Amino acid sequence: QVQLVESGGGLVQPGGSLRLSCAASGSIFSINAMGWYRQVPGKQRELVATMTSAHSTNYADAVKGRFTISRDNGKHTVYLQMNSLKPEDTAVYYCNADTVLGLSSNFAVQPLGDYWGQGTQVTVSS
Predict the structure, then answer these.
(1) What DSSP designation does 40 have?
(2) Residue 122 near residue 8 (C-beta atoms within 8 A)
(3) Pairing relation of β-strands 120-124 and 10-12?
(4) What is the pLDDT of residues 69-124, one digit of tens each?
(5) What pLDDT was estimated at residue 116?
(6) What pLDDT is stored for residue 46 in this prediction?
(7) Is the model's pLDDT at 1 over the cut of 90?
(8) Are 65 and 86 in contact (CB under 8 A)?
(9) 104 to 10, 12, 25, 66, 97: CA distances (angstroms)
(10) 44, 57, 84, 118: least buried by Cβ within 10 Å?
(11) What residues form DSSP beta bridges with 119?
């Protein structure tokens, strides 16, 4: 069993900052990519930022220069520092873990698949 728990969402003013965190727990051997997606009502879920275990990053054009993703592989935790927030950033932000490998009871590596967090609301408004 793997769980992703997000925290750090809330209400901020335009131009403000917020830091999201997401911790994966379970018998995890490795996670290929961790990242953040966001979704608003009536829209498709969209990529915000991802990072591989080798720290290669991918950002949506809308957040480049404002958001920074970071990751602690040892803690299986990913962060999203959001600066210069805009009302258009308002959404539910979901943590994602892609291609999770776990350990069986005899320590064999086995694929566990992909996981999503429950989401955390970010609202940017004056």
Answers:
(1) -
(2) no
(3) parallel
(4) 999 999 999 999 999 999 999 999 999 999 999 988 899 999 999 999 999 999 99
(5) 97
(6) 98
(7) no
(8) no
(9) 37, 43, 15, 40, 19
(10) 44
(11) none
CA distances for 26 relative to 23, 92, 97, 104, angstroms:
10, 24, 12, 11
Average pLDDT of 54-71? 97
Beta bridge partners of 83: none
Dist CA 37 CA 59 (whole Å): 10
Nearest Cα to Cα of residue 48 among 26, 18, 73: 18
| pLDDT number for residue 99 | 92
**Distance spanning both ends of the chain, measured CA to CA:** 40
Residues 31/50/97/25 CA torsion (nearest 10 deg): 70
Q: Which residues pair with 6 in a beta bridge?
A: 22
